[in-house]
Write a structure and sequence with these properties.
Elements (H helix, E strand, L loop, with lengths): L1 H22 L5 E5 L8 E4 H20 L8 H17 L5 H23 L13 H25 L22 E4 L2 E4 L8 H20 L7 H24 L2 H20 L3 H22 L3 H9 L3 H21 L12 H8 L15 H9 L1 H16 L7 H14 L2 H4 L1 H13 L1
Antiparallel strand pairs: 1-2, 3-4
Helix pairs in contact: 1-2, 1-5, 2-4, 3-4, 3-14, 4-17, 5-6, 5-7, 6-7, 6-8, 6-15, 7-9, 8-9, 8-15, 13-14
Length: 433
C-alpha cells in the first residue's frame, strides 16, 4: 500500500510537471481582479494549477522519504533569507491583495526551483522523477510553436487574438503596440504569445542556448530517438533564431550574442573540441541567416541599432526618467522595499496629477526593481543565491552562458520580476542550471 501511494505521487509529480513546462510559455489565465496593466492584475494561470499539483505531490513524496538531520546547504540559507524579506515586504505594500497574490506566485515558483534542484542531486540520479534534458525538450517544443506564431505575426504584420491560448490582438496602427517606426511606416514587432516582444526575445535567447548545447554536446548519435531529437533541435534552432530576429529586441539580441561567445569559451576551457567545432558550424549558419534577413529589412535594423528616430528616442528618454523615479522611490524604502508587485502603485500614489495606469511602468532593470520592491537585503540574498549556484559542482556546462544571458536581460528589463510569468520563468531557469 505504501509503495503504491508513493508510485502514485511520482506519477502525479512527473506528468503534471511536464504539462506545466509545456503550458508555461502560454498566457492562459482567468482574470480575478482586472487592472489597467498586467503589473497590477490578479489572475490564475493554467500553468500555475499544474505547477501547484506537481509541487504539492512532490513535497508529500519528499516528506515521506526525508532525512531531517541533513545539513542545510548554503544555497538554501540564501533562498530562505531572500524568502524572508519577500514575506516582510508584504506588510509594507500599499495593495495587500496584490502583494499576497504575488507572494503565492513566488511560493509556487520556489517549489518549482526546489523540485528541479532536488532532482539534480547525485543521489537522485538512479531514480529521478524529472529528467533535465527531457524538461528542456518539452519546454523547447512549446517555444517552437511560439516561434512559428512570432514569424507569422511579423510577416503578416498582424497579431490575432485568441483568448483560449492567452493571445491578445496587436496591430501596427494601434496606440501602445510595440513597433519599429521607419520612413516606410510602422512595423509590428513579433510578440508570439507573450505580453511584449522583449519577453519573446528574452525567452528565445535563453532557449536557443539550451537548444544549441543539446545539439552539439554528443559526439555520436546511436539511437532513433537521438536522431529525431537532433533533427528537432536543428529545426527549432533556426526557427527560434528567425523569431528572435523578428522580435527586434535589442536586449535579447545582445544577451544571445554574449551567451553564444561564452558557450564557445566554455567548450574550449573544458577541452570539448568536437562540441566547439560543431558550435562554430552552427554560428556560421547563424550569421548567414542573419545577413539574409538583414538585407530586405535593413532600415528596420538600422533604426533599432542607431536609436535616433522619434520612438527610439522616446523609449530611451523614458528609461532615463525611470532611473530618476527609482532613485526617488528608494530614498525612503531602500531597506525593505515597497512590497512585491507594488512598484507602479507607489509611482501612482506619489504622482500629484494622476494619469492612466499604463503611464506607470516598472524601472527597466530587474536588479533595481528587486531593490525597490524587496529592499537591500533581498538583493544581497539574491546575489547569494547566484553565488551558491555558481559554486555548485553539479552545475551544467551551460551555466555561465545562461546566467550571463539572464543578467543581461535583467539589467535591461523588468519582466522577470514584474510579471507572474517572469518570476516563475526566472526560478525555472535557475533551477535548470
Amino acid at each position: 500500500m505504501k509503495k503504491s501511494f508513493e508510485k502514485l505521487l511520482q506519477l502525479i509529480t512527473k506528468y503534471s510537471f511536464y504539462t506545466f513546462v509545456f503550458i508555461l510559455p502560454w498566457q492562459i489565465k482567468y482574470i480575478i481582479s482586472p487592472a489597467g496593466t498586467n503589473y497590477t492584475e490578479i489572475s490564475i494561470y493554467l500553468s500555475q494549477i499544474f505547477l501547484t499539483i506537481s509541487v504539492l505531490s512532490y513535497l508529500i513524496y519528499r516528506i515521506r522519504k526525508s532525512n531531517y538531520c541533513q545539513k542545510v546547504p548554503f544555497l538554501w540559507l540564501m533562498v530562505s533569507g531572500f524568502s524572508l524579506f519577500v514575506f516582510v515586504s508584504f506588510f509594507i505594500a500599499i495593495d495587500k491583495n496584490l502583494a499576497y497574490y504575488r507572494f503565492i506566485v513566488y511560493l509556487i515558483s520556489l517549489g518549482l526551483f526546489y523540485l528541479l534542484r532536488q532532482e539534480n542531486r547525485p543521489e537522485a540520479y538512479e531514480n529521478t522523477l524529472i529528467s533535465k534534458s527531457k524538461t528542456i525538450i518539452v519546454f523547447l517544443s512549446s517555444i517552437f510553436f511560439q516561434a512559428i506564431l512570432a514569424i507569422y505575426q511579423f510577416l503578416s504584420q498582424s497579431a490575432f487574438a485568441f483568448k483560449y491560448l492567452g493571445l491578445a490582438e496587436h496591430q501596427p496602427d494601434f496606440l501602445g503596440t510595440s513597433v519599429v517606426e521607419t520612413a516606410t511606416g510602422r512595423w509590428l514587432r513579433a510578440y508570439g504569445g507573450f505580453d511584449h516582444p522583449n519577453i519573446l526575445g528574452g525567452v528565445l535567447a535563453l532557449s536557443l542556448i539550451l537548444a544549441l548545447f543539446l545539439l552539439v554536446r554528443k559526439k555520436l548519435i546511436t539511437s532513433k530517438y537521438e536522431i529525431m531529437q537532433s533533427l528537432f533541435l536543428f529545426i527549432f534552432y533556426f526557427t527560434g533564431l528567425l523569431a528572435l530576429i523578428f522580435s527586434f529586441s535589442r536586449s535579447a539580441w545582445f544577451a544571445y550574442s554574449v551567451s553564444l561567445i561564452i558557450l564557445l569559451i566554455v567548450f574550449l576551457l573544458k577541452r570539448n573540441i568536437s562540441a566547439f567545432k560543431r558550435s562554430l558550424i552552427i554560428v556560421f549558419f547563424t550569421l548567414i541567416l542573419s545577413v539574409v534577413i538583414y538585407i530586405p529589412f535593413n532600415d528596420l535594423f538600422i533604426t533599432r541599432i542607431e536609436a535616433n528616430n522619434r520612438l527610439e528616442e522616446k523609449s530611451l528618454n523614458e528609461r532615463s526618467e525611470q532611473i530618476v523615479e527609482c532613485r526617488e522611490v528608494l530614498e525612503n524604502n531602500w531597506l525593505f522595499g515597497v512590497g512585491l508587485g507594488n512598484y507602479t502603485n507607489v509611482l501612482k500614489e506619489r504622482d500629484q496629477i494622476k494619469k492612466a495606469d499604463w503611464n506607470y511602468q516598472p524601472v527597466h532593470n530587474t536588479f533595481l526593481l528587486i531593490f525597490s520592491e524587496l529592499g537591500l537585503f533581498s538583493l544581497i540574498f539574491f546575489f547569494g543565491i547566484i553565488i551558491a549556484l555558481a559554486k555548485d559542482e553539479r552545475k551544467s556546462l551551460y551555466f555561465w552562458p545562461i546566467i550571463i544571458s539572464l543578467f543581461v536581460l535583467m539589467f535591461f528589463d523588468h519582466w522577470l520580476l514584474s510579471l507572474p510569468f517572469g518570476l516563475t520563468f526566472l526560478l525555472f531557469i535557475l533551477g535548470l542550471i
